[in-house]
Amino acid sequence: MATENKNLSQYDKNTIPNAKDFRFGIVVSEWNDAITNGLFEGAKAALIDCGALPENIVRWDVPGSFELIFGSKKMIETQNVDCVIAIGCVIKGETMHFEFVCDGVTQGVKDLNLKYDVPTIFCLLTDNTMQQSIDRSGGKHGNKGTEAAIAAIKMVALNK
Ligand SMILES: Nc1c(NC[C@H](O)[C@H](O)[C@H](O)CO)[nH]c(=O)[nH]c1=O
Ligand SMILES: CC(=O)[C@@H](O)COP(=O)(O)O
Fold first, then answer.
1. Distance from the alpha carbon of residue 55 to the mean position of ligand 2, in angstroms
2. pTM higher than the cut 0.95
């Protein structure tokens, strides 16, 4: 199902575990920060709506999406979190750099999930245009940050 056929912000609280005892790390890329901050706000709001305490949400910023890998690794190793949400927005430019950044972050986040007993949620927009990013960070398709937060809560509950 493509994103255009579902709203990224929709969830049924009755099906989501209460997150009051869960601790979350959120690593946010500074590239396209208008978008990544929107994704962060969506994620934070959903976590709190589902019971998470603000003091149990730790935010770190990193320069770009490629640094989400190392930032998430250090978040896991030092902050005693139950889950990490890695937030970034990669937008296609003129060169192949887009493909390498997207694939690198994808593989890096996968490797973190294999290495640590703490899930890292893949909240990376990989868009062709800024409009696609706007549409997915609180626009007409909802907010991928919200989707990531719900995934985070479900994965923490699964891992308890
Ligand atoms: N073009 C985008 C980047 N590029 C920067 C890389 O993520 C990385 O910070 C750099 O290669 C240094 O290691 N990052 C994004 O998050 N979004 C982009 O569109
Ligand atoms: C994803 C990127 O790094 C990209 O936005 C950089 O743009 P360009 O490919 O034009 O150098």
1. 36
2. yes
